[in-house]
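pinging the channel bc i need a second pair of eyes. not urgent but kinda urgent?? the chain im working w is below, pasted from the shared doc
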Amino acid sequence: MSTLSLAAVHTKYNLLETMRVPIAVIGSLVFPTLAYCLFVLPQGTVTQNPEFATAATASLIVFAFMSACLFSIGIDLAEQRSKPWWPYLRTLPGSPAARMIGLMSATLVISILAMIPLLLVGGLFTTASVTVPALLSAIGLVILTAVPSALLGVIIGTTAGPKAAIAIAQVAMFLLAFGGGLFLPPVLFPEWLDVASKFLWVREAREIVVAAALGTEIPVWAIVGIAAWTVALGVLAIVLYKGDEGRRYR
Protein backbone atom coordinates (compact mmCIF):
# COMPACT_ATOMS: atom_id res chain seq x y z
CA MET A 1 0.00 0.00 0.00
CA SER A 2 1.37 3.41 -0.97
CA THR A 3 1.99 6.19 1.54
CA LEU A 4 -0.95 8.21 0.21
CA SER A 5 -3.32 5.24 0.36
CA LEU A 6 -2.22 4.50 3.91
CA ALA A 7 -2.61 8.19 4.79
CA ALA A 8 -6.20 8.07 3.50
CA VAL A 9 -6.89 5.14 5.85
CA HIS A 10 -5.39 7.04 8.78
CA THR A 11 -7.50 10.09 7.86
CA LYS A 12 -10.66 8.02 7.87
CA TYR A 13 -10.00 6.45 11.25
CA ASN A 14 -8.85 9.72 12.82
CA LEU A 15 -12.18 11.25 11.80
CA LEU A 16 -14.12 8.25 13.08
CA GLU A 17 -12.30 8.37 16.40
CA THR A 18 -13.04 12.08 16.73
CA MET A 19 -16.72 11.61 15.91
CA ARG A 20 -17.03 9.03 18.68
CA VAL A 21 -16.72 11.99 21.07
CA PRO A 22 -19.48 14.35 19.84
CA ILE A 23 -18.56 17.16 22.23
CA ALA A 24 -15.09 17.33 20.66
CA VAL A 25 -16.61 17.81 17.21
CA ILE A 26 -19.18 20.32 18.47
CA GLY A 27 -16.50 22.28 20.34
CA SER A 28 -14.29 22.51 17.26
CA LEU A 29 -17.20 23.67 15.12
CA VAL A 30 -18.84 26.06 17.58
CA PHE A 31 -15.93 27.74 19.37
CA PRO A 32 -14.72 29.95 16.44
CA THR A 33 -18.30 31.03 15.67
CA LEU A 34 -18.91 31.72 19.35
CA ALA A 35 -15.80 33.91 19.43
CA TYR A 36 -17.13 35.71 16.36
CA CYS A 37 -20.46 36.34 18.07
CA LEU A 38 -18.74 37.65 21.21
CA PHE A 39 -15.99 39.78 19.66
CA VAL A 40 -17.46 40.94 16.34
CA LEU A 41 -21.26 41.03 16.33
CA PRO A 42 -21.60 43.42 19.31
CA GLN A 43 -19.48 46.02 17.46
CA GLY A 44 -21.87 47.97 15.24
CA THR A 45 -19.06 49.99 13.68
CA VAL A 46 -17.58 46.73 12.41
CA THR A 47 -20.70 44.86 11.36
CA GLN A 48 -22.12 47.87 9.47
CA ASN A 49 -18.93 48.51 7.50
CA PRO A 50 -18.47 45.98 4.65
CA GLU A 51 -14.67 46.24 4.68
CA PHE A 52 -14.36 45.92 8.46
CA ALA A 53 -16.89 43.08 8.59
CA THR A 54 -15.13 41.16 5.82
CA ALA A 55 -11.75 41.60 7.52
CA ALA A 56 -13.19 40.46 10.86
CA THR A 57 -14.75 37.37 9.28
CA ALA A 58 -11.48 36.50 7.56
CA SER A 59 -9.59 36.95 10.85
CA LEU A 60 -11.88 34.54 12.70
CA ILE A 61 -11.55 31.99 9.91
CA VAL A 62 -7.78 32.15 10.39
CA PHE A 63 -8.47 31.61 14.10
CA ALA A 64 -10.65 28.57 13.34
CA PHE A 65 -7.85 26.90 11.38
CA MET A 66 -5.18 27.86 13.92
CA SER A 67 -7.11 26.54 16.93
CA ALA A 68 -8.00 23.32 15.11
CA CYS A 69 -4.34 22.74 14.25
CA LEU A 70 -3.14 23.31 17.81
CA PHE A 71 -5.81 21.19 19.46
CA SER A 72 -6.58 18.48 16.91
CA ILE A 73 -2.94 17.86 16.04
CA GLY A 74 -1.14 18.82 19.24
CA ILE A 75 -3.43 17.20 21.79
CA ASP A 76 -4.47 14.22 19.65
CA LEU A 77 -0.84 13.41 18.82
CA ALA A 78 0.15 13.64 22.49
CA GLU A 79 -2.72 11.33 23.47
CA GLN A 80 -1.89 8.83 20.72
CA ARG A 81 1.76 8.73 21.79
CA SER A 82 0.71 7.90 25.36
CA LYS A 83 -1.29 4.82 24.31
CA PRO A 84 0.17 1.31 23.78
CA TRP A 85 -1.30 1.23 20.26
CA TRP A 86 1.09 3.95 19.04
CA PRO A 87 4.35 2.03 19.68
CA TYR A 88 2.78 -0.98 17.97
CA LEU A 89 1.97 1.11 14.88
CA ARG A 90 5.63 2.12 14.72
CA THR A 91 6.66 -1.54 14.32
CA LEU A 92 4.58 -1.91 11.14
CA PRO A 93 6.19 -1.40 7.71
CA GLY A 94 4.01 1.60 6.82
CA SER A 95 5.67 5.01 6.52
CA PRO A 96 5.49 7.21 9.66
CA ALA A 97 4.66 10.08 7.29
CA ALA A 98 1.32 8.40 6.50
CA ARG A 99 0.21 8.70 10.13
CA MET A 100 1.10 12.38 10.25
CA ILE A 101 -0.51 13.14 6.88
CA GLY A 102 -3.65 11.34 8.05
CA LEU A 103 -3.80 13.39 11.25
CA MET A 104 -3.27 16.66 9.38
CA SER A 105 -5.85 15.74 6.73
CA ALA A 106 -8.46 14.94 9.39
CA THR A 107 -7.71 18.30 11.02
CA LEU A 108 -8.15 20.03 7.66
CA VAL A 109 -11.61 18.49 7.27
CA ILE A 110 -12.64 19.68 10.75
CA SER A 111 -11.25 23.17 10.03
CA ILE A 112 -13.22 23.47 6.80
CA LEU A 113 -16.40 22.39 8.59
CA ALA A 114 -15.74 24.99 11.33
CA MET A 115 -15.45 27.66 8.65
CA ILE A 116 -18.98 27.08 7.31
CA PRO A 117 -20.97 28.45 10.30
CA LEU A 118 -18.58 31.42 10.44
CA LEU A 119 -19.34 32.30 6.84
CA LEU A 120 -23.06 31.89 7.44
CA VAL A 121 -23.11 34.13 10.51
CA GLY A 122 -20.93 36.72 8.79
CA GLY A 123 -23.13 36.71 5.71
CA LEU A 124 -26.43 36.88 7.59
CA PHE A 125 -25.70 39.28 10.44
CA THR A 126 -23.07 41.65 9.06
CA THR A 127 -22.49 43.62 5.87
CA ALA A 128 -19.48 41.49 4.94
CA SER A 129 -19.26 41.11 1.18
CA VAL A 130 -16.85 39.15 -0.99
CA THR A 131 -16.77 38.02 -4.60
CA VAL A 132 -16.64 34.33 -5.44
CA PRO A 133 -13.05 34.45 -6.83
CA ALA A 134 -11.89 36.39 -3.75
CA LEU A 135 -13.65 33.90 -1.47
CA LEU A 136 -12.02 30.91 -3.16
CA SER A 137 -8.65 32.62 -3.06
CA ALA A 138 -9.02 33.42 0.64
CA ILE A 139 -10.04 29.83 1.45
CA GLY A 140 -7.04 28.45 -0.42
CA LEU A 141 -4.69 30.86 1.32
CA VAL A 142 -6.09 30.22 4.79
CA ILE A 143 -5.30 26.53 4.27
CA LEU A 144 -1.75 27.30 3.14
CA THR A 145 -1.09 29.80 5.91
CA ALA A 146 -2.29 27.30 8.54
CA VAL A 147 0.77 25.12 7.88
CA PRO A 148 2.96 26.79 10.57
CA SER A 149 0.18 26.28 13.14
CA ALA A 150 -0.07 22.63 12.10
CA LEU A 151 3.69 22.26 12.50
CA LEU A 152 3.49 23.84 15.96
CA GLY A 153 0.80 21.28 16.78
CA VAL A 154 3.21 18.51 15.73
CA ILE A 155 5.93 20.00 17.94
CA ILE A 156 3.58 20.21 20.94
CA GLY A 157 2.27 16.69 20.42
CA THR A 158 5.76 15.26 20.01
CA THR A 159 7.37 16.91 23.02
CA ALA A 160 4.58 17.00 25.62
CA GLY A 161 2.33 14.52 27.37
CA PRO A 162 -1.47 14.70 27.07
CA LYS A 163 -2.07 16.92 30.12
CA ALA A 164 0.81 19.26 29.34
CA ALA A 165 -0.25 19.46 25.68
CA ILE A 166 -3.69 20.76 26.67
CA ALA A 167 -2.22 23.57 28.74
CA ILE A 168 0.42 24.48 26.16
CA ALA A 169 -2.09 24.49 23.30
CA GLN A 170 -4.50 26.73 25.24
CA VAL A 171 -1.81 29.26 26.16
CA ALA A 172 -0.37 29.26 22.64
CA MET A 173 -3.80 29.68 21.08
CA PHE A 174 -4.73 32.79 23.08
CA LEU A 175 -1.29 34.39 22.82
CA LEU A 176 -1.16 33.88 19.06
CA ALA A 177 -4.78 34.95 18.56
CA PHE A 178 -4.43 38.22 20.45
CA GLY A 179 -0.89 38.92 19.27
CA GLY A 180 -1.84 38.12 15.69
CA GLY A 181 -4.75 40.57 15.63
CA LEU A 182 -7.47 37.95 15.27
CA PHE A 183 -9.63 39.24 18.13
CA LEU A 184 -8.57 42.89 18.14
CA PRO A 185 -7.73 44.59 14.80
CA PRO A 186 -4.02 45.50 14.56
CA VAL A 187 -5.04 49.09 13.74
CA LEU A 188 -5.96 49.41 17.44
CA PHE A 189 -2.59 48.10 18.64
CA PRO A 190 -0.03 50.44 20.19
CA GLU A 191 2.93 50.95 17.88
CA TRP A 192 5.26 48.58 19.72
CA LEU A 193 2.72 45.74 19.69
CA ASP A 194 1.90 46.34 16.03
CA VAL A 195 5.58 46.00 15.12
CA ALA A 196 6.09 42.94 17.32
CA SER A 197 2.98 41.17 16.01
CA LYS A 198 4.27 41.39 12.44
CA PHE A 199 6.87 38.78 13.39
CA LEU A 200 4.14 36.26 14.29
CA TRP A 201 2.99 33.91 11.52
CA VAL A 202 -0.61 34.30 12.70
CA ARG A 203 -0.48 38.05 12.01
CA GLU A 204 1.12 37.33 8.65
CA ALA A 205 -1.59 34.77 7.86
CA ARG A 206 -4.25 37.30 8.80
CA GLU A 207 -2.81 39.96 6.53
CA ILE A 208 -2.61 37.52 3.61
CA VAL A 209 -6.15 36.15 3.99
CA VAL A 210 -7.73 39.56 4.65
CA ALA A 211 -6.00 41.03 1.60
CA ALA A 212 -7.25 38.14 -0.54
CA ALA A 213 -10.81 38.54 0.74
CA LEU A 214 -10.81 42.30 0.16
CA GLY A 215 -9.08 42.02 -3.19
CA THR A 216 -6.17 44.22 -2.12
CA GLU A 217 -2.43 43.70 -2.52
CA ILE A 218 -0.89 41.12 -0.21
CA PRO A 219 2.02 42.57 1.84
CA VAL A 220 5.38 41.18 0.79
CA TRP A 221 6.61 41.12 4.39
CA ALA A 222 3.77 38.77 5.30
CA ILE A 223 4.66 36.32 2.53
CA VAL A 224 8.35 36.33 3.42
CA GLY A 225 7.63 35.99 7.13
CA ILE A 226 5.23 33.07 6.88
CA ALA A 227 7.54 31.27 4.43
CA ALA A 228 10.40 31.62 6.91
CA TRP A 229 8.24 30.36 9.77
CA THR A 230 7.10 27.38 7.68
CA VAL A 231 10.67 26.34 6.94
CA ALA A 232 11.90 26.86 10.51
CA LEU A 233 9.00 25.07 12.19
CA GLY A 234 9.05 22.35 9.53
CA VAL A 235 12.71 21.54 10.16
CA LEU A 236 12.16 21.55 13.93
CA ALA A 237 9.06 19.35 13.68
CA ILE A 238 10.87 16.80 11.48
CA VAL A 239 13.88 16.65 13.80
CA LEU A 240 11.73 16.20 16.90
CA TYR A 241 9.42 13.67 15.28
CA LYS A 242 12.31 11.56 13.96
CA GLY A 243 14.03 11.80 17.33
CA ASP A 244 10.88 10.58 19.05
CA GLU A 245 10.64 7.71 16.56
CA GLY A 246 14.22 6.71 17.34
CA ARG A 247 13.77 6.84 21.11
CA ARG A 248 10.68 4.63 21.00
CA TYR A 249 12.35 2.04 18.81
CA ARG A 250 15.28 1.63 21.25
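so The chain is about 80% helix and 0% strand. and The mean pLDDT is 87. — does that match what u expected or am i reading it wrong
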